[in-house]
Amino acid sequence: MPFFGDIPKPARVIDSSMGWAHTVRCMARDTHRSAVYSVEDALGRQLDRGGTVEFFGSTLTLPIERRFADVASMQRFVDSVLSVIDPYLPPVTVRERVSASKAHYERPRTDRLAAIAVPLQLIDGRRWAARESVLLHEIAHHVTHHDDCARGEAAHGPTFCAHLISLHARVIGPESALLLRASFDSAGIPVAGVVAS
Ligand SMILES: [Zn+2]
């Protein structure tokens, strides 16, 4: 897909809400979860309208993120992203989450593939969760789940945040990734270091 760039992979070194919910494995306490949600909430509002953003004296132009109408289109999106970032990653099933306002990630089990569950009901006339940034958050959980560097880390730990930034860079655009990284930094949210692959 033409919008995916060649972005370095997150490494091990640590340098530094939208109302998401998800299943987590045994790990450290998730102390930065609400801060991560707040950052994504703010970025999500900007991606909702797109346009220019002032950033330390420079002007960045953000795209408007894509929205999806149904499970099939979200599944195609998730499959495309996974095939580009790592074709050896196990697949993820996208399904509708009924009677809920939050998307979540379900890690794989011996009898079931990993899943991303997304509510499709309308809120203020829009499918709130069926959009690019929400799916990237859940894909980041999937990538992190299969990353040994994240072992023992919190669900929204440094490796998760690094994968999320990388996904924004490759899928939405470098401007979105830059804002996300800067916002994590100013909020004191640790992010795993990035090195060239
Ligand atoms: Zn999450």
Strand order of the largest sheet: 4-6-5
Radius of gyration, Cα only, in angstroms? 16 Å
Task: Catalogue the unreliable spans.
Answer: 1-25
- Ions and ligands: zinc ion
Largest sheet: 3 strands, mixed
Class from secondary-structure proportions: alpha+beta
* Shape estimate: globular
Number of H- or I-type helical stretches: 5
Give the fraction of residues assigned to helices: 25-40%
- Strand percent estimate: 15-25%
The total number of structural domains is: 1
H-E string: EHEEHEEEEEHHHE
Oligomer: single chain
- Number of β-strand runs: 9
Mean pLDDT metric: 85
Explain how this protein is built:
- By secondary structure, this protein is of the alpha+beta class.
- It has one domain (10-194).
- Helices cover 38% and strands 18% of the residues.
- It starts with 9 loop residues before the first strand and ends with a strand.
- Bound molecules: zinc ion.
- Residues 20, 22, 137, 141, 155-156 line the site of zinc ion.
